[in-house]
Design brief:
2 copies of one chain form a homodimer.
Chain A (H helix, E strand, L loop, with lengths): L2 H8 L4 E6 L4 H7 L7 E6 L5 E4 L4 H7 L3 E4 L5 H6 L4 H13 L3 E3 L5 H7 L5 E3 L4 H7 L3 H27 L1 E3 L2 E4 L2 E2 L2 H14 L2 E2 L4 E4 L19 E6 L2 E2 L8 E6 L5 H19 L7 H14 L14 E3 L6 E5 L11 E4 L2 E4 L3 E4 L2 E5 L4 E3 L10
Parallel strand pairs in A: 1-5, 3-4, 5-6
Antiparallel strand pairs in A: 1-2, 2-3, 7-8, 8-9, 10-13, 11-12, 12-14, 15-16, 17-20, 18-19, 20-21
Helix pairs in contact in A: 5-6, 8-9, 10-11
């Protein structure tokens, strides 16, 4: 019995229902159908899940989806609309027909749909996050998909870093072909490269100097000599929907002694974190082990220092279960996670290094092969 | 008083609350903040809306967001977490504190959050879709943003069509530089061009021959001589989040008489639809006028023929209010809409032409300037 069947049974429900576009990772996971317009998914216990789509999407849905495909017309939706029911009501009516009993729904199920559905059957909230839990444990196929995105990502990282490596400083500003080399140019080089590999780079961070002290600063303008440049790239494969995620920090020229020391601490923290990964290890313990490690090296973590979590799951969402943060639980084999310690000090700058890999029974199957060198 | 204030008052609520990442167009509209992780927005009646973000996002949020920015720590969230409340509970608790009374929420508000929030204050569903309604009427600034995406989109269309124009047929298959010219190559050319303009092409349709009979077929493989090629492109500006949307159908070589006639009917249907656009015109009436027009030309609309709506609103979502379909209501000045009639016949092929523009008091301010020529 799969996880969703157990959850339906344990909830005393007849079926599980989800609603959303494929921007909703749960819907994408359950249907394997790409759509910008929302669709309905209903799975009765012990039966194959049903994807309900407009007539226009029928052929593509049959070809792409892992679910059984039914048109809205065949599911009765259009009749309810013709009878004058508003959209949410008609959708709920259709789900009620398909479920034929109490309905288990995910936490993000739309309130409007839940309230209409409640007039037909009880609506039970899946507080345990069953589908998030299923998504967090990757199959071998999913791991291969993610590895493949990671390979494209590392090649893109190399393209970006190659521009920085080839640049020359003029008055402290990096130049390439006699023009200032900007964060935008490095980002565009990587995104264009990724596009040709079928991957979409989104909000890739290329930040430099003072900007690096803010971990989520996208970065803008000319890159500087002797200053840390943080490149954090987390593209999504357009077809499969899976992400990779990696970060490197480099300096063209001479980093300050403070940056050098921070880099060494972060590199060692990453090695420490990775060395403790295995099935059964607790995410919060790993996080606090790194907090502790940084403290021993003289870096306290509060509003400065190590200000984020040690890592997170990666899959159809770039941030998903499990957490390697203060509230992280036990890891299981098949989790795909990042290990990404960082240190951030306004006035000095920031350093982050991030690898990704799979949790195994005995350790960390690191996907990331890309070199670690501060000075390029 | 703005629309949201009226809605809060009319609902007898104290505040409006929304939850989501910027993939949720309502959240993006209200906050103007880009984020892949969900954020909370709360607006009390008559007051400025508040965006609640993690500490790490504080500086960027202050710089980018149109809302007042408060960290989760300052909003009390972290205290509730420390006190052992689960994530949804702590989020609801924080929203309840900020709202200090009944809370109006959008239809897609997460059920888990609504159920927790209900233990503090009544949760009132905004059945009228107030924010969707606000989003449907664009400001002059928004119209300029969308025009700018449309300009990039037309330039991308020209790049794609230029490849087809420059190709030569060998045995019925279009070739460029002695290699078959594929749907993928045309798509990649357009996407790469768009990327350099800061826009992201998503699922651009480049379909040919039999594939064109399915309006949402993405298209794959070599393009064919004498067959319709449908190019439907709806990119999003990465920074502003606004979309454009346009479609052209071309043939390299000699189209069949049936395709020629369909093209003329679709072109005339588009002109008819556009000519009837103005504030006060009813979306459903426009749709059915085109259905009627096609019928007069001998094209019945059922599972073949004109199988989709005449058009839709475009903005932060590529499909949004208002609808120019069977259930479309009255248009208002400031709506940005598409007019996109199409005809689809398995065995013959499909034709679609799509323009975009703004509804004015007196007509249709068409943004699309791109030429209409079937044979290239």
């Amino acid at each position: 019995m799969n996880g969703l069947d157990s959850a339906i049974r344990d909830a005393g429900a007849a079926a599980y229902a989800a609603y959303g576009s494929s921007a909703d990772a749960g819907v994408r996971y359950l249907t394997r159908f790409r759509t910008t317009d929302p669709v309905v998914y209903v799975k009765k216990q012990g039966e194959r899940g049903i994807l309900v789509i407009p007539q226009m999407e029928h052929e593509r849905a049959v070809r792409e989806s892992s679910a059984a495909v039914v048109t809205r017309a065949d599911a009765g939706y259009l009749e309810y609309i013709k009878a004058g029911e508003p959209r949410w009501r008609a959708t709920a009516h259709m789900i009620a027909d398909l479920a034929a009993g109490p309905v288990l729904v995910p936490a993000t199920f739309p309130l409007a749909l839940a309230r209409e559905l409640e007039s037909f059957h009880p609506v039970v909230l899946d507080a345990a996050g069953t589908v998030e839990g299923m998504r967090a444990v990757k199959t071998q196929d999913e791991i291969e998909q993610i590895r493949s995105v990671q390979r494209a990502t590392e090649a893109a990282m190399e393209r970006g870093i190659a521009l920085i490596r080839a640049s020359r400083s003029k008055g402290g500003i990096l130049h390439l072909d006699d023009r200032p080399l900007t964060a935008e140019a490095v980002r565009a080089e990587m995104h264009t490269f990724l596009l040709a590999r079928g991957c979409r780079g989104i909000d890739t961070i290329v930040s430099c100097g003072p900007d690096t002290a803010l971990p989520h600063n996208l970065g803008t303008g000319p890159l500087l000599e002797n200053e840390p440049i943080v490149i954090d790239i987390f593209p999504q494969d357009e077809l499969s929907g899976y992400h990779a995620d990696m970060t490197r920090t480099v300096v063209k020229g001479e980093p300050s002694p403070a940056i050098r020391e921070m880099y060494e601490a972060v590199r060692d923290a990453k090695a420490l974190g990775a060395s403790e990964v295995r099935a059964g290890a607790v995410g919060a313990d790993l996080h606090y082990a790194v907090v502790e490690f940084f403290r021993d090296r003289g870096y306290e973590s509060n509003t400065q220092g190590f200000v984020h979590s040690l890592g997170h799951g990666v899959g159809l969402e770039v941030h998903e279960e499990p957490s390697l943060g203060p509230r992280g639980g036990a890891l299981v084999a098949g989790n795909v996670i990042t290990i990404e310690p960082g240190l951030y000090y306004p006035g000095t700058g920031g350093i982050r290094l991030e690898d990704m890999g799979a949790v195994t029974e005995t350790g960390f199957d690191r996907f990331t092969q890309y070199t670690e060198e501060l000075i390029i």
